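Dear colleague,

Thank you for sharing your sequence with our group. We've completed the structure prediction you requested, and as agreed, I am returning the results in plain text so they can be pasted directly into your records. Please verify that the sequence below matches your submission; if there's any discrepancy, let me know and we will rerun it promptly.
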Amino acid sequence: MSVGEKITLIRKDNNLSQEAMGEALGVSRQAISKWESGVSHS
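Please find the predicted structure tokens below.
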């Protein structure tokens, strides 16, 4: 399982949208999307 898949699983297990998770972590929704898709590692 990739890091992106783990992020997606944790987010969905907690019933969070990408936007809500981004707000909780202090990053943009786009950053969460990139992490989940494996586009960005930062």
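Summary note from our side: Residues 3-37 form a domain with the 434 Repressor (Amino-terminal Domain) fold (CATH 1.10.260.40).

Kind regards,
the structure core
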